Amino acid sequence: MGEKLKRLDKKILLFTLIGVFAGIVLFAGTAGTLKATDTGEFCSSCHVMGTVYETFANSNHAALTCNDCHLPHDNAAIKFVEKAKAGMGHMYMNTLGASKIPDVLHATENSKEIINKNCISCHEPSLQNVQHDVKDSCVDCHRQVPHSKGDFRPAEWYEPKDFYFMPAGRK
């Protein structure tokens, strides 16, 4: 009976080690996949997103990922559900629905809500300095940011500042 128990213990240990290894591989693969699919390079791999990515890459928001703006950040579960829904929709449109892809891409109502919430989340400090009660959402006035066809920045954006701001009390 002792011999059977030793063989059973070895099997349990082996299956436990295999399970732990599989879990680590699955987790690492999933985390890596989630991170990779957040990038602009991934999003632009569909030919219809080429111009969208180019304009984004040349914008003030280029340091962000696509999903910093296009996915909710309330909690991981909500983010993953929205990411899965968007991914399935994109896969469908780029395969079976390719003939239905419009020349100009527009955000869905759900996406506009998410984007607006993320705009406010990042820019909340500056919203206190400017009155923004004219329109319903950020996108109403700032629709071309960061995906404009042209450069929306004024010429002075590129000019070096000819002053140096020194905080009060410092010399």
From TrEMBL:
<protein>
    <recommendedName>
        <fullName>Cytochrome c-type protein</fullName>
    </recommendedName>
</protein>
<keyword id="KW-1133">Transmembrane helix</keyword>
<feature type="binding site" description="axial binding residue">
    <location>
        <position position="70"/>
    </location>
    <ligand>
        <name>heme 2</name>
    </ligand>
</feature>
<dbReference type="InterPro" id="IPR038266">
    <property type="entry name" value="NapC/NirT_cytc_sf"/>
</dbReference>
<dbReference type="InterPro" id="IPR005126">
    <property type="entry name" value="NapC/NirT_cyt_c_N"/>
</dbReference>
<keyword id="KW-0408">Iron</keyword>
<feature type="binding site" description="covalent">
    <location>
        <position position="46"/>
    </location>
    <ligand>
        <name>heme 1</name>
    </ligand>
</feature>
<dbReference type="GO" id="GO:0019333">
    <property type="term" value="P:denitrification pathway"/>
</dbReference>
<feature type="binding site" description="axial binding residue">
    <location>
        <position position="123"/>
    </location>
    <ligand>
        <name>heme 3</name>
    </ligand>
</feature>
<feature type="binding site" description="covalent">
    <location>
        <position position="43"/>
    </location>
    <ligand>
        <name>heme 1</name>
    </ligand>
</feature>
<keyword id="KW-0812">Transmembrane</keyword>
<feature type="binding site" description="covalent">
    <location>
        <position position="69"/>
    </location>
    <ligand>
        <name>heme 2</name>
    </ligand>
</feature>
<feature type="binding site">
    <location>
        <position position="67"/>
    </location>
    <ligand>
        <name>a menaquinol</name>
    </ligand>
</feature>
<keyword id="KW-0472">Membrane</keyword>
<feature type="binding site" description="covalent">
    <location>
        <position position="138"/>
    </location>
    <ligand>
        <name>heme 4</name>
    </ligand>
</feature>
<dbReference type="GO" id="GO:0009055">
    <property type="term" value="F:electron transfer activity"/>
</dbReference>
<keyword id="KW-0349">Heme</keyword>
<feature type="binding site" description="covalent">
    <location>
        <position position="119"/>
    </location>
    <ligand>
        <name>heme 3</name>
    </ligand>
</feature>
<keyword id="KW-0249">Electron transport</keyword>
<feature type="binding site">
    <location>
        <position position="79"/>
    </location>
    <ligand>
        <name>a menaquinol</name>
    </ligand>
</feature>
<keyword id="KW-0813">Transport</keyword>
<keyword id="KW-0479">Metal-binding</keyword>
<dbReference type="InterPro" id="IPR024717">
    <property type="entry name" value="NapC/NirT/NrfH"/>
</dbReference>
<feature type="domain" description="NapC/NirT cytochrome c N-terminal">
    <location>
        <begin position="10"/>
        <end position="149"/>
    </location>
</feature>
<dbReference type="Pfam" id="PF03264">
    <property type="entry name" value="Cytochrom_NNT"/>
</dbReference>
<feature type="binding site" description="covalent">
    <location>
        <position position="66"/>
    </location>
    <ligand>
        <name>heme 2</name>
    </ligand>
</feature>
<dbReference type="GO" id="GO:0009061">
    <property type="term" value="P:anaerobic respiration"/>
</dbReference>
<comment type="similarity">
    <text>Belongs to the NapC/NirT/NrfH family.</text>
</comment>
<feature type="binding site" description="axial binding residue">
    <location>
        <position position="61"/>
    </location>
    <ligand>
        <name>heme 3</name>
    </ligand>
</feature>
<keyword id="KW-1003">Cell membrane</keyword>
<dbReference type="GO" id="GO:0005886">
    <property type="term" value="C:plasma membrane"/>
</dbReference>
<feature type="binding site" description="axial binding residue">
    <location>
        <position position="49"/>
    </location>
    <ligand>
        <name>heme 1</name>
    </ligand>
</feature>
<dbReference type="InterPro" id="IPR051174">
    <property type="entry name" value="Cytochrome_c-type_ET"/>
</dbReference>
<feature type="transmembrane region" description="Helical">
    <location>
        <begin position="12"/>
        <end position="34"/>
    </location>
</feature>
<feature type="binding site" description="axial binding residue">
    <location>
        <position position="147"/>
    </location>
    <ligand>
        <name>heme 2</name>
    </ligand>
</feature>
<feature type="binding site" description="covalent">
    <location>
        <position position="141"/>
    </location>
    <ligand>
        <name>heme 4</name>
    </ligand>
</feature>
<dbReference type="InterPro" id="IPR036280">
    <property type="entry name" value="Multihaem_cyt_sf"/>
</dbReference>
<feature type="binding site" description="covalent">
    <location>
        <position position="122"/>
    </location>
    <ligand>
        <name>heme 3</name>
    </ligand>
</feature>
<dbReference type="GO" id="GO:0046872">
    <property type="term" value="F:metal ion binding"/>
</dbReference>
<dbReference type="GO" id="GO:0020037">
    <property type="term" value="F:heme binding"/>
</dbReference>
<feature type="binding site" description="axial binding residue">
    <location>
        <position position="142"/>
    </location>
    <ligand>
        <name>heme 4</name>
    </ligand>
</feature>
